[in-house]
Amino acid sequence: MRQPADHASHTVVVFSHDAAIRERIRFAVGRRPAADVGRIEYVECATSAEVIGEIDAGGIDLAILDGEARPTGGMGICRQLKFEVTACPPVLVVLGRRDDRWLAKWSLADATVTHPIDPVEAAAAVAGLLRAGAVVAG
Question: What is the pLDDT at residue 133?
Fold first, then answer.
């Protein structure tokens, strides 16, 4: 079992079947999305099984899921996690279109951003979710 992250760092799962998209997400969010949020350690996942395994292992503070991933999209994984994991971390879903926000609501995503990923918007969304998670966990 992974040890829970301390206040100085956060462990974030980044999921996409496409390594280039995972890299874009990491680059957009950065290592420290806000001055009052600790550093981020990323765990990359290319399959839904990897995501579920990492979340089940514990110690994950946030999951960022590509809603356009194939064959299993991030919205389906998000919904599964929210129904099956007792202490599910917050989930940010990256959408292909803003019009898909209604699907993200169905998936129970905590926040969304859209492709192409705006670094300011992505960092703000991640920082907000990590702050909210720290309040719940702390």
Answer: 77
